[in-house]
């Protein structure tokens, strides 16, 4: 939040007229990294500058990496619910759409989730492997054995717990207002998971 605040203040001091901020989708309110995004949104809204907020959903590519098969099966504890994941290319296209006509988007917040929710079980089915989710305790222990930065394991666990609780599936998205034909998130996540599983 200090870093984001410094950037907002520097932009204001240098006379920047309009800031377009890449934030986190509303469905991500329970994720470990949500607070910094919400704080930054408020800082921008109080800055006196024009603002547009692009609230990105979880990347389909990230979901694919998180559920890559381990030992021939998917074990990441994502529960049975869906995640309204979105392709990075679609988020980039949405940002370009806003950048082409920024004045038309002043004071707007866009919720850019995927158009369909995907589940770990669906990805497993696409790959032809079983979905046997770990307990949270087992998953946390596994992450503790990986070369992660201190904040990363809790961040990943927050994604797993939010997915299991059903918080990451949404019914409506503004993505279709900015991107004509969003990509199939299940296909992207499945392809990434399959690639990650290769020795």
TrEMBL record:
UniProt domain NAD(P)-binding: residue ranges: 6-102
The family database entries (Pfam families) matched by this protein are listed as: NAD_binding_10 (PF13460)
Q: Which SUPFAM superfamilies match?
A: NAD(P)-binding Rossmann-fold domains (SSF51735)
Entry's Gene3D superfamilies?
NAD(P)-binding Rossmann-like Domain, UDP-galactose 4-epimerase, domain 1
Record-given protein name: NAD(P)H-binding protein
Organism the protein comes from: Sulfitobacter porphyrae
